[in-house]
Amino acid sequence: MEKQYSSKKIPPKTTALSTRAMAAKVILQVLDEGKSLSTLIPEAQSSVKAQDLPLLQEICFGICRVLPRLEQIIKRLVDKPLKGKTRIVHCLLLVGLYQLLYMRIPAHAAVDEVVNATKSLKSDSFRGLVNGVLRRFLREQDDILAIVDKHWQTLHPDWFVNKLKKSYPNWREIIDANNQKPPMWLRVNTQKNSLETYRTLLAAQQTETQVTSHPQALGLTQPTAVQNLPLFAEGGVTVQDLHAQWAALLLQPQNHEVILDACAAPGGKTTHILELAPQADVMALDVEENRLQRVKENLARMQQQATVVCGDAANPQAWLDKLGKSAVRFDRILLDAPCSATGVIRRHPDIKWLRKEADIKQLVALQGQILDALWHYLKPNGVLLYATCSVLAEENSQQIERFLQNTPDAQLLPLDLPPDVLERNQSAVGFQFIPQIDGGDGFYYAKLVKRQG
After folding, report:
1. What contacts 102, CB < 8 A, 6 or more positions away?
2. How far apart are CA 258 and CA 280, in angstroms?
3. pTM assigned to the model
4. Which residue numbers belong to the known binding site for S-adenosyl-L-methionine?
5. Which of 86, 90, 386, 394 has a CA 20 to 30 Å removed from the CA of 449?
6. Closest C-alpha to 390, from 312, 333, 447, 336
7. CA–CA gap between residue 396 and residue 5 (Å, rounded)
8. What is the largest CA-CA distance in the chain?
9. Distance CA 316, CA 321 (A)
10. Which of the residues are catalytic?
């Protein structure tokens, strides 16, 4: 639960910002400063009332999801583009249009709230423009939308769509799934409850679920707050995407093995490894100290033990030396590699506007460095599971093909997945999940063994 702030505790500047004004500021920082919603929303939490946080999230995530459509509407309503210091007004119009098109807020209330937000944003001189544009849209909505929606819109940047077209005959399925709100998936801790028992607990509180061939996964028909999930605080269940839940199962951890979870934050896969092998010696690594706090919190909630390390996966020697474990070699390594995150766009729609085509080449180079570096610390006959939440071949199948060509002692292993899952593979090398409207996100897996001699 977020903190409640009294008017005495909030600085006057913060008090003046309404939820709509805050949403406009957040969107401006995404579009013009390249900041992510996952950073900006937590920062904004202290500036809005706890009960207004869902509204802020809905507006900000929603605008990023449908941005090109809103931008086309604004072009038809505003004669002169709002640039420079007036960009905040442009973002406020995005907020207003999103509410009118996609939310159940009465039109007059939505317009009034957005118009009033001009004052706290020090853009009071644009009050008339904002009011006029939004009311004109309400009057001419049918005609404007008939033009804007005449052709199917991907709502994605062209460079990304072009890459999808080259790799996937069914590329439109990926686009359609990305444009939906994400489903909520749970991973039941079967050390504490069977899947069916936990499903019964949810049914008792009128929460409908769906099951798949994954032995621990439950899909919720309607998302809910984690506080409402039975046994969440006691570690009985974890929120984790369906396709991400295959990682630990494919790794096949065993008790008493030495296992590295590289790029581990926020810790969902670390805790899953320990559910499957409670007596394994697990090291959870991440390069960002602040993100490791989430790993520690998840381990504590699940009542599990792991060595949590801040370090660069591309330079294992540095942090192993610091730990006094320079001689350690791992039985298994889970490398959830830094990637474009193009498989989880529906959860993070700002990725569409933050990620640039030039980023991919840099990410591919970093992934290759990490693969090479960690391979040296894998025992003979050890297993490395390479994973990304990307749908781009450069980061996935092409990365693994190149690694296999350059690494004589690396061998690709078949993936132990159910037949109904295997038939959905979208990759010739490894396994590529694509996002599914009622299913999991886009994920890639390749399992490698280190041959002896």
Report:
1. 62, 66
2. 6
3. 0.93
4. 263-269, 286, 312, 336
5. 394
6. 336
7. 46
8. 76
9. 8
10. 389
User: Tens digits of per-residue pLDDT, 276-335?
Assistant: 999 999 999 999 999 999 999 999 999 999 999 999 999 999 999 999 999 999 999 999
Q: 113 Cβ partners below 8 Å, 6+ apart?
A: 18, 20
Q: What is the pLDDT of residues 198-231, one digit of tens each?
A: 999 999 999 999 999 999 999 999 999 999 999 9
Going along the chain from its start, the domains and CATH numbers come out as 19-153 (1.10.940.10), 183-238 (3.30.70.1170), 241-450 (3.40.50.150)
Query: What does the angle CA 200 – CA 204 – CA 207 come to, to the nearest 5 degrees?
Result: 85
| Alpha-carbon distance values, 331 to 82, 254, 327, 422, 430 (Å) | 57, 9, 13, 26, 21
Round to whole Å and give the CA distance between 250 and 259: 14
Tell me whether the omega of the peptide bond preceding residue 266 falls within 30 degrees of 0, making it cis.
yes
Nearest CA-CA partner of 387 in 272, 226, 238: 272
Residue ranges for the known binding site are 263-269, 286, 312, 336
How far apart (Å, rounded) are the C-alpha atoms in residues 354 and 40? 13
Q: Which of 338, 399, 336, 345 is nearest to 174 (CA)?
A: 345
